[in-house]
Specification:
The chain has 117 residues and is an alpha+beta fold. The chain has one domain (7-102): Alpha-Beta Barrel (ADP-ribosylation fold). It contains 3 helices and 8 strands. It has helices spanning 14-23, 30-35, 43-53, and strands at residues 7-13, 25-26, 38-39, 60-66, 74-78, 84-88, 92-93, 97-102. The strands form 3 sheets. It has a 3-stranded antiparallel sheet with strand order 1-4-8. It has a 3-stranded antiparallel sheet with strand order 3-6-5. It has a two-stranded antiparallel ribbon with strand order 2-7. The two termini are 21 Å apart.
Length: 117
């Protein structure tokens, strides 16, 4: 298993993230609950994730998480085309979040990403 990247990313609606901030914890989306883990992407995977699962959606945020703070609950498992994606088994404590940025739509309908670390 390769070394985990320093940061992983979660794309989610702003309303969902603001509720998590209010609750003090992020429990994931309905899809996350259905799958039994919170889906994340690496920096190299985030743009494709947005295009595949959030195409044309406005009002999204990009949440940057420090992977080392998640311990052994973070696992990299095969997904799209066999690529290893980060999955968090359990809730996301907000202390692991290092940055939250808007993910606006560009005129061409794609999301405009901030620089990813």
């Amino acid at each position: 298993m390769p070394t985990a990247p320093r940061f992983i990313y979660k794309i989610c609606p702003e309303t969902m993230w603001r509720a998590a901030e209010s609750d003090g914890i992020f429990r994931g989306s309905a899809v996350d609950a259905q799958d039994g883990f919170i889906h994340f992407s690496t920096a190299a995977q985030a743009v494709e994730t947005a295009a595949r699962h959030f195409a044309g959606q406005a009002g999204l945020l990009l949440v940057q998480v420090e992977s080392a703070r998640l311990g052994d609950r973070l696992r990299f498992e095969p997904s799209r085309g066999g690529a290893l994606f980060p999955h968090l088994y359990g809730d996301l404590e907000l202390a692991a979040v290092t940055k939250v940025a808007p993910l606006p739509l560009a005129p061409d309908g794609r999301h405009r990403f901030p620089p990813l670390d």
